[in-house]
Design a protein that fits this description.
about 190 residues; alpha+beta; three-stranded antiparallel β-sheet; two-stranded antiparallel ribbon; 7 helices; 5 strands; about 15% strand
């Protein structure tokens, strides 16, 4: 029965986390590695914090309102550290940051999430035209153009009109600061 399965899962998770908590001596008991994390780990967390800060920004009366990058970075770093602890490590590795990448992309509004993924994905970046964006996201061309303007307004990329056979089209180029880091696997 579903209710019994949920209850058992909840109990097992609670028991596991309680033992983990006790093993490390409670709050503040973890003795983290004293060496700095690798450059790839540090830069990837910084990238994710910056991406979240820009992609989750709200535009109110023509003004962009962004969250604190320090708060976002701290939350991502704590998520990575928690993942490391779950695997018995007191050092954050790239596999811990991969969890942060999934979390970072999933925190954006639903209508913006897929579009931001398309724009920063190593498979599609750095430039996408309106038709490619519409196809990638299953959008109409007018909606794709609207999303392109939104990304430009958020300062994640810029649009330009380019010549194509038979006319012109809009193309969106992601800002170099938002190109996905090579060291960080893109979430699937």
């Amino acid at each position: 029965e579903y209710g019994a399965i949920v209850s058992t899962c909840r109990e097992e998770t609670h028991t596991y986390l309680k033992k983990l908590w006790e093993y490390h001596g409670g709050a503040g008991g973890v003795k983290w590695e004293t060496q700095e994390p690798s450059e790839d780990v540090r830069e990837s967390v910084e990238y994710l914090a910056r991406l979240v800060r820009y992609a989750r920004a709200q535009v109110v009366d023509g003004h962009i309102q962004r969250e604190s990058i320090q708060r976002i970075g701290t939350n991502l770093w704590n998520l990575a550290r928690g993942h490391a602890l779950l695997y018995g490590r007191e050092e954050v590795l790239m596999e811990d940051v991969e969890v942060c990448a999934n979390a970072a992309l999933s925190t954006m509004t639903a209508k913006r999430r897929g579009f931001v993924e398309a724009v920063v994905s190593p498979e599609t970046a750095p430039t996408l035209n309106t038709a490619e964006i519409a196809e990638y996201e299953g959008l109409s061309l007018p909606t794709a153009r609207k999303r392109m303007r939104e990304i430009e307004e958020l300062e994640i990329g810029r649009t330009e009109t380019t010549k194509v056979r038979g006319g012109s089209t809009k193309a969106l180029t992601v800002d170099p600061d938002f190109l996905w880091p090579k060291a960080l696997p893109f979430p699937r």
